[in-house]
C-alpha cells in the first residue's frame, strides 16, 4: 500500500497555486477548482481543492528537505513568513512552521534516520 496524495482546502485557488509554486512544487493539474502538484523529489504529490464554505482544517502537511536551513533561508528571501524557524523538536525532527494563504499549517522538516527509525520505534 502507498499513500497517493493529500488534498488541502483553499479559499483562493490562484493565490494558493502561486504560493506552492514559490515553495518549489511543480503544478501538474490546474483547474479553477482543483490543482495538483508534484514534489521536487520522489514520487509524492498533493492537491488543492477550492472551498466556498468556511472551513477549519486541523491537519498539518509535512514536506521533508535534507538542507532545511538553506531552504528556509531561500524562502525567507522570497518573502515567505514563518511562525517558527528551524527548531530541533523533542521527537528529534528539525521543523520550521508556516501557513499557506488559506491558513493550512505546513511544516518543513528534516528528520533523517529518525523519520522512520526513532530511538523509541516499536519492533
TrEMBL record:
Residue ranges of every copy of the VOC domain listed in the record: 2-111
Domain of life: Bacteria
InterPro entries in the record: Glyas_Bleomycin-R_OHBP_Dase (IPR029068), Glyas_Fos-R_dOase_dom (IPR004360), VOC_core (IPR037523)
Residue runs in coiled coils: none
SUPFAM superfamilies: Glyoxalase/Bleomycin resistance protein/Dihydroxybiphenyl dioxygenase
Name under which the protein is recorded: Glyoxalase
Amino acid at each position: 500500500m502507498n499513500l497517493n496524495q493529500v488534498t488541502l482546502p483553499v479559499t483562493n485557488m490562484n493565490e494558493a497555486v502561486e504560493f506552492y509554486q514559490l515553495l518549489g512544487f511543480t503544478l501538474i493539474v490546474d483547474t479553477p477548482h482543483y490543482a495538483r502538484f508534484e514534489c521536487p523529489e520522489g514520487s509524492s504529490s498533493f492537491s488543492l481543492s477550492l472551498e466556498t464554505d468556511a472551513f477549519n482544517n486541523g491537519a498539518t502537511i509535512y514536506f521533508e528537505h535534507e538542507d532545511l536551513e538553506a531552504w528556509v533561508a531561500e524562502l525567507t528571501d522570497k518573502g515567505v513568513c514563518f511562525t517558527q524557524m528551524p527548531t530541533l523538536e523533542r521527537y528529534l525532527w528539525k521543523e520550521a512552521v508556516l501557513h499557506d494563504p488559506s491558513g493550512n499549517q505546513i511544516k518543513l522538516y528534516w528528520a533523517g534516520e529518525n523519520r522512520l527509525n526513532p530511538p523509541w520505534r516499536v519492533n
